[in-house]
Amino acid sequence: SHSFAKSTANTTRRPRQLSVDYYAKSCPLVDQLVGSVTSQQFREAPVSGPATIRLFFHDCFVEGCDASVLITTRMGSKLTEKDAEDNKDLAVEAFDSIKKAKSLVESKCPGVVSCADILAIAARDFVHLVGGPYYQVKKGRWDGKFSIASRVHSNLPRVNSTVDELLQLFKSKGLTLEDLVVLSGAHTIGFAHCHHFLNRLYNNKGTKQPDPNIDTRLLKALKMSCPQVGGNSDIVAPFDVTTPFSFDSAYYGNLEAKLGLLASDQALFLDPRTRPLVQNLAKDKQKFFQLFAAAMDKMGSIGVKRGRRHGEKRKDCSMHMS
Ligand code: HEM
Ligand SMILES: [Ca+2]
Ligand SMILES: [Ca+2]
């Protein structure tokens, strides 16, 4: 019957189980250990917050949440994910945070906690440190044995992806339309380099005109920071022009006012399928926080590996074992 078919599909596709108390016996203080590093790192280098949240997203979307994004290319070997074009802007502070957390955890519980779990915990800590929700992180991920630069591009969204393409990509990861809108809310903090939105300012879709869906004052300001040619490639603009350093629902209100930075942000308001949710989240921060916590949990269980057949437990997060 229909319901039978549905339930078997569910059992075969159920992600390997993670649990909040996975390290209860082997490393009961893992959350506190990571927490002491993330809070110090946040005081010393606040950019670690947005950078680590983005690092977690880029890990989970490519080969699942398995710390594949942390592997560095060895001399004479093929490029790893970290060196793929789409990962060039991942800030070094994010990698530093994980490295420091891993070394503290290794000193107390050697060989026990995966880099993938440390990244998931650190991302949660930073969401909370920047003013977002606190939620329990389920653990039990193993680290991946592969990290291949050429696997990155097709598994990440592009700044000019259509809503259809975004929905399709998210669906391929087991995520819904709601997850797409809610997780994009991470852009309530952080910054983007000019090249990601330059076309919107000067030559939208080959028209030689700016994107009509940018507020004129924002357009003017962005053009000042980001000249069409010869600009400084280090210049960045805030995703959320109102509160770039705090985790709130201003991102969604901005979209209603044509203040989105990337085409993919603004598209969530322009598309009639996603607009109602944008409007709801704009006026309900509690709802945003609740849905964001749930969506991070869901994203954190993409492609999870368990056991030696498919995974490893690294000592140094940047190097495979053996
Ligand atoms: C939906 C499609 C998405 C696209 C096209 C996209 C694209 C981008 C781009 C181009 C940047 C700027 C990088 C730079 O110039 O340094 C960025 C930054 C960022 N992204 Fe996304 N992103 C998406 C979804 C997400 C999701 C789902 C998350 C996390 C849940 C996320 C978290 C972040 C954060 C926190 C930053 C700021 C990083 C920083 O300031 O260091 N993004 N994103
Ligand atoms: Ca990965
Ligand atoms: Ca904000």
UniProtKB/TrEMBL annotation:
The EC number(s) this enzyme carries: 1.11.1.7
Record field: catalytic activity: 2 a phenolic donor + H2O2 = 2 a phenolic radical donor + 2 H2O
Disulphide bond pairs: C27-C109, C60-C65, C115-C317, C194-C226
Ranges of residues in domain Plant heme peroxidase family profile: 17-321
GO molecular function: heme binding; lactoperoxidase activity; metal ion binding
Class of the enzyme per the UniProt entry, highest EC level: oxidoreductase
InterPro entries, per database record: Haem_peroxidase (IPR002016), Haem_peroxidase_sf (IPR010255), Peroxidase_pln (IPR000823), Peroxidases_AS (IPR019794), Peroxidases_heam-ligand_BS (IPR019793), Secretory_peroxidase (IPR033905)
Gene Ontology BP annotations: hydrogen peroxide catabolic process; response to oxidative stress
Residues given in the record as Ca(2+) 2 binding sites: T188, D240, T243, D248
Annotated protein name in UniProt: Peroxidase
Coiled-coil region list: none
